[in-house]
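Task: sequence in, structure out. Protein: Antibiotic biosynthesis monooxygenase family protein.
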Amino acid sequence: MIVRIWRGWVHTDKAEEYIRYVEETGMAEYRKTPGNHDAQLLSRDLGDGRTELLTLSWWTDLDAIRAFAGDDLERAKYYPEDEGYLIDQELTVQHFTVAPPAP
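Result:
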């Protein structure tokens, strides 16, 4: 199992609107891609007018991620209206192998 992680930042007054947009676009696409086990969107108000967003998605393997993201697995995937919301974003994502549970 592999976890894919992305981060971005929006103005706090636009956070709820952007969260709805991400749920309708990226999160929906994650969840319908074969090999995706789940996806979550986390947010936190940084107290300075910005809200940080973090997406976590769980995948069977790199081929499943490739079906979602394309051949450049490290490149973040964006949707048409993201640019209008994001004040900063990571252009790459991180992948972590989930350690099996201890016996």
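The first strand starts at residue 2 and ends at 11.
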